[in-house]
Amino acid sequence: MSNQVCNNNRRRWVVPMKKALFLSSLLFLGVEAEPSLEIINKKIEKNNEKYRKIAMEGFSIQRRMNLESCYAECDADFLTPTSTCADKPGKFTLTNGKKKKCKWVSHKSEKRCTKKSSREHCPETCSLCDNESIDEYVKVDCGDQCHPIQWPYWMHDCYPDSTALNDCAKATGEYNGIAFSLQDCYDEPDSNKMYCFIYENKPASPLECQSNVFDNDNCIYGTERGSFYILEDEYDNRFNDIEDQYVFIKFESIGDVQPSEASIDDIVLEVNDLSNNILDAQASTFDGISWNNGRSPQWSIFSDGTSFMTSYGTLRPSYTTSEHADIFGDSEGIWTKVKVRGSIEVLHLTFKLKYGRGNDNLRRFYIAQVGIGSEDDDYKSFKVMSQKIVAASTIEIPGYTGWHEHSATWYSSTWSSDWEYDDAY
Predict the structure, then answer these.
(1) Whole-number average pLDDT of the chain
(2) Which is the most buried residue in 132, 160, 330, 341, by most CB within 10 A?
(3) Would you place residue 241 in the very low, low, confident or very high pLDDT band (cuts 50, 70, 90)?
(4) Separation CA 355–CA 338 (nearest Å)
């Protein structure tokens, strides 16, 4: 029993003795043995600041959530017609007999809230949006064919009918699209949802579908309950309602009036789409036209120097059904124009030519021109965009008497003419 008490007493003293030795060593090293009240208070203050920051961050998160809830109240006004629109907006409304674009206004997501929310938790900062930034869409009439299938696009998602307009507009902005269309969600029949198609900021293919797309049946696709919206700037680019333009072709004989002519055949004019000749068959080949003093119903003759072609016409062979056309004389030739709808991006003219009499005459050459003009322009006033000059090389290498194909091309991306000069071969 006494040994146990002794051992217990020993334990009570051993620890204090060790602690005393440890503290004395700290004092010897110049370290304060016990933390002072000042140090303890600093630690408490530091911890309080830490917890205060955590609490503030939590409040900030909650505040942001409240703001988002507030903004959500404005979602119903995400895409609404402006005051310039009729009750049921279409491509145009009429004001004093003049066309006026109908716009829809889209409030960007970070600044949708334009009036005080009735929600109690909504902060006052939500009551007004300063310097509000908006996107403006134009709703384009498209009937039951509201999908421009030749515009680069992707099928984004199906949204409930009640929110599809807003949801699709928002997605279009997030993906940097230029337009969107809505139609029944055929992937989910009877779901009362609308498919959102988003159109990219890329050229249409073929380019003839770039402008006024809903006027071209080859560029659009049928839709159920369809509608189409496009950013105002892009509307101005793609639905420009420009006047009809005309593409002109002119073939001219220039030089020595001694007997010499060139025969023309197989003319092909391609505009934008390099697989579609916009000339009709007789205008291209001159085939099967009855003799009418050598006059073609599709081509006009001009004589600004000599007047041989005015006298003898252009269709050949003479006095029978035609097979090709001839041009001859000095500053004489033939020309035609073709109406083209929408913008013109590419002109590509090809034709076949062969020399007749005087094929070794170096003072005679021929020019084929292609260009753009209006309905009031003629062969003198249209803007030449590209031309091909054909001439004999030398007496030793005369102009060819067999058919030879030539071309002249212009691209709008360069805005420069493709001037070309060919010798006989």
Answers:
(1) 74
(2) 330
(3) low
(4) 27
Q: Look up residue 102 and give its amino acid.
A: C
| Nearest in space to 267 (alpha carbons), one of 314, 219, 207, 200 | 314
| pLDDT, tens only, 334-373 | 999 998 866 677 899 999 999 887 777 677 789 999 999 9
Question: Would you kindly state where each structural domain of the chain is located, as residue ranges?
Answer: 82-238, 245-422
Q: Are the C-beta atoms of 404 and 354 separated by less than 8 Å? A: yes
The answer on pLDDT for 43 being more than 70 is no
Let me know if 35 is exposed, middle or buried by CB neighbors in 10 A (0-12, 13-18, 19+): exposed
Question: Counting every residue, how long is the chain?
Answer: 425
Taking residue 91's Cβ as centre, other Cβ atoms within 10 Å add up to 17
Whole-number pLDDT of residue 236: 78
pTM: 0.47
